[in-house]
Design a protein that fits this description.
Shape of chain A: elongated
Number of helices of chain A: 34
Mean pLDDT of chain A: 85
CATH class of the domain at 5-42 and 288-511 and 758-917 in chain A: Mainly Alpha
CATH architecture of chain B: Clam
Oligomer: heterodimer
Helix content of chain B: 10-25%
Distance between the termini of chain A: 22 Å
Strand content of chain B: over 45%
Strand order of the largest sheet of chain A: 3-4-2-5
Radius of gyration of chain A: 38 Å
CATH class of chain B: Mainly Beta
Number of strands of chain A: 9
Strand order of the largest sheet of chain B: 6-5-4-3-2-1-13-12-11-10-9-8-7
Chain lengths: ~950, ~260
Amino acid sequence: MKENEKLDDTAILGLLGKWGKWASIHWEKTLLIALVITIVLGSGFYFLKMELTYYSMMPKASPKVRDLKKIIENFPAASSIVVVLEAKDRRNREKAKETVTSAVDKLTEELSKPKYSKYIKQVHGKLDIDFFKNHGLMLTKTKDIRRFEKIFSDLRIVPFITNLNNDFEREYSGNEDKFSEDEDIVTSQLQGLREILLEMKDSTTGRVSKDKLRDSLSKSIDKFLFGSPYFLNRDGTMALLYVLPNFTINDMNMFVEGVPYLDRVIKEKADALGVKAGLTGLVVIAKDEMKTSEQGLALSTTIALILILLLMILSFRMYSAPFISGIPLVVGILWTIGITGLVIKRLNILTAMYMIALIGLGIDYAIHLLTSFIQERDDGHSFTEAVALSFKKSGAGIVMGALTTAVAFFALTVAKSAIVKELGIVAGLGILCELLAMMILVPAILGYRMHRLEKKGKGESAFLMKYKLEHRVISKLAKSIKSKPVLYLLITLAFGIVLSSQAYKVQVEGNLMNMEAKGLESVELQDKMVEEFGLAPDTLSLVFQDIEKERGIIEKIKKLDSVKEVESIIPFYPSKEQQERRSGEILDFRKILESKDTAGLTNYIDTSRLKDELSRLKDNLLEMSDLAYSADMEKTLYTLNSITGLDNEGNQVGSSLIDELIDTIDKNKNSSAGLMNFQNYFQSLMRSKLLKTANTQEITLSMIPSNIRNAYISGDGKNYLANILPTQNPWVKENRKVLMDQISTITDKATGMVLAADQMTEIAEHDGIKAAITAVIVIFLLLLIDFRNLKLSILTLLPLVLSMSTLFGIMAITGIKFDFINIIAVPLLIGIGIDDAVHINHRYLLEGPGKMDTVIARTGKAVFLTSLTTVIGFSSFIPSVMRAMKSTGIVLSIAMTLAFFFSILFHPSILIIIREKFHLNILPWGGKKK
Amino acid sequence: MKKRIYGLIKLIAMVPFFIAVVSNLAFAESKAISILERADKAFTSAKIYSVATMTIYKSGKPRTVVEIESYSMSSRDKYYSLTIYRKPARLKGTAYLVIDNDLWVRFSSTGRIRKLSSSARENSAGGSDFSYNDMGESGKGMAEKYNSRLLSDRAVIDRRKCYEIELTPKESGKDKSSYEKVVVFIDRENYHYLKIDYYKSGANIKSLYLSDYRTVGGVDYPFKLTMESHTEPTKTEIITTEIELDSPKVKKSLFTTSYLKRIR
């Protein structure tokens, strides 16, 4: 609603005309006024923060977001940077494993140095095995302690292997725990067993030195009892390193600076250690969001500005046109940013994107003013008269149009969510700032330009006369519409209806990760963590004040099919009752160990029985590998194959370690002596390690390793955190639904980035619809006030309705989804998309019946140009790497193109039919029929 | 070795007897019962011999294709089943014997036979998405365990109009179903089961799709069963390649541990 020529004779128009004239003559003073405004509003830059992360957009009033914020602030580990290390050469698994574990140790040492303390609080790349070595049995369930009593009741090698076989065979018949959950532990223990068997074999030959045997056997037993301390992937060629930073996602300045620094340092150091490193985690993703958003915005701004200014040159055939329109355009955007700084104090992804869209919107006012100015000059008016007349004739329309658009945008403040409110305020203010900048600066720059031309002794009329509106195509189209309105109506209607019929299939993006930039390392690493480490890319969290209450809830949640694991302090901190119960069992276990302290130091080993038990062990391992093969447990299968000598298909491709051991016993005359030697060390080491772990000392919170405490106990010690690891990627909407359906049967307190994002989508969806309805109502009321005719107001809304429903249909067909960014932009489309039809209405009312060809010919180019600039503004987001920006660019560009299409073809046709065929009155109430 | 192991064994033993799932459905509510009865008619046979392939898909990618030969029968309220692996080579000769709730396995790699616990009815079957309960119960059928309620006669599955019937467990104790409810979709035109949704702890955790119905011995059988998990990125497809009803190949002497020992 930018032109409203009916109001020609009002006082406002006179005022605007006078202003235009004054500003063009007193251009220096006017520029000074603009400068003062710029300085005043520019102060807003000081208060402005760029918060270009999705996290910053989350609804702060939502309990889930509040809880999430609380977790981030109180639990340092929630902001951990996860470093994924991968051996450069993964062909030899054993070597690759050595490389990554060594890299973990060296990087831990390096990053723990004081020079990194500005950003790093703590680094850990492996479990604190000492804690388990000292308190392992207290952390073990009573039934498992009893199992250990049986396995380790006699540590001489024959009884030990016999008991181990009994335990393996017992496994086939009773335990119902999830094997997949234990895969890491089982694999590690099998690796320990393999090493113990290798030590035994070497001892049998008598070739191994006592010291070496003692050292290597000690490590093997550690592995057998406690597993590997490293966080390794399925084949051991990748590892995870956790870096606890000195900042959280709430400290934007710190993470924007700290994450790139750490990224660079870690990658450099890792490279030198023969491993590739990649960083992920909440703060890393947030940093990547910031970076890709900034890149996207910079690219979009450049594209939009270049294209629009080029368009200005081509349209107006004036090299000065980009300056006359471009300077006020940029100044208007600067004012908007400044005022946003003063009012809202931040720019989020959406409002930052709007600043670029504003390039396409604000330029419209310059197009109208310049078009009008040129026409007046062509009509032979002097420079100052032409400026005054252009302001007088177009000014009111522009002001009226801008005000109605701004009102429609401000109406978005009815929304519940802060992001929609912010967008409404910024969008409304943006329109007003652009209007003000154009009204102040266009006449002043024109005046300055005239002054320069006069100084150089050049006239402008010859220059300006080059400018001719291209009417031929539009005139032809206009005549065709006028002669065949029914045909155009039916074609456009059919087009709209066919596509709209698919609109119900349009989907809402439920995966925030699909809105991130494609190929983002931090996001891709999350998928890698799922694939290689079996870790969920994101967890849900629960915060408790009462640890005892936590125990019961966690036990219930653990049993859910959609939950893989629940991580909390509980496995490291058994309840008092559990500790008391376990103490009794541990004491019994100790008694057994102590009673046999010297029993093993005998001079006899029954090699025949040993061989039988080894054969039995081989059978058990073969059967386990069959089952591991069936269940696709690659890690376990690989370890078992390394003992059995089989490949994955069951072919004997290598020698069986157990067969070799039996063979060695058979062939070596001194095998008994070697075995005795092995047995003595094995007994002694195993017993001392078991006695150490069979510790009845009560575990207190302070005894738990600090990395575990940091992860699960808040800084003030008052809250406990539990992380729920889902079986499937919770960012996928369908997975999230199953997970939440199950968890909600136990608790409604779960939160996490994924749920906060979900809530953000829900609120955006709800608010988007609410704001769109409000925008339609406000615009309808404005149309009623403007046209004072119900029929015409309804007809004016029709192209908008058609373009929106067609847009939804196109989105459904092409698979473009709504997301919480583009859905919020829909109400903006309503405010902008109505303009074209309004221009046509005004001109039609002015020209009268039978003159639709003139209407289209006269308004067509301006409508086309303004629509094109708006589309350029929106489409400049399409090349962005950030997928949310890209989809928003596509959606808004299609919408604006459709709005133009229906306004220029459908709307004139229906106006002709209604007014000229059916003779219905579309004139203002109380107005005279033309 | 825990859930997967038991599940695997039970699954393999039960593969051809999915039929039992549907044949045993009997329901309280009259309309639902009559619909289910018509649907169940297709699944009655005393002795069944079948050959099937089972493929587990993980994240959309197929894993090893397993070929299994199965024999099953019911006699004196007892349920018998013998399943023998034919492919892949690694598992060839692995066999599972089920007599009611008792299970035995023969490992091809060692030739040893082990008796297994029958307490893992609800566990995942060999990394597949089926569980023992999904494949049918030896002895007691689902009909005795579930109440039924017709939810809709206008449900649509694959563009086919369906009856949607909700089943909720009647029994408690150890015979209680592991699911809190099951929802079945039956084709209104031919009374074929098309889909079965399994619910646990408030969520639909997996869905079974039945398709490729072919007429065998005068009744329609689904030759393709696809169980899609909603809690894991997996699905399991079982395709029957050969089936004989009242087959002379099925003899009681097959269902003994001594026969299990003779399998090669």
